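Go through this chain for my students:
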Amino acid sequence: MSSNTDHFANKRTFLAWMRTGISLMGFGFVIAKFVIFLHALEGKVTSSFSDSLIAGEVMIVVGMITIAYGYVEYVTNEKDLDNNKYYSRKTELLVFTAIIIGMAILLLLFII
């Protein structure tokens, strides 16, 4: 039987996913705007298309995916707690990990 502490732990885990996603999106914003800052220091006109802009956008998307995955995990775990059952979700975690690693590899190939 699940207790209140189990539900609170699940909520804390969800909030950790949220913090991670927000951090990734913030980092993406900084990456996207960094080239504009450098060009402003040098007095150059910036183009709207740059490697750092695309890298920043990818980081923002990764942050959104992280938050969405955290929400799905939270809801699924709540259902499991309500039913007094636990199911290991290795496949879902593997898919999430593969998506994030795939996006990181694409980002690396684009930047290099």
Notes: DSSP finds three helices and no strands in the chain. The CA atoms of residues 60 and 77 lie 26 Å apart.
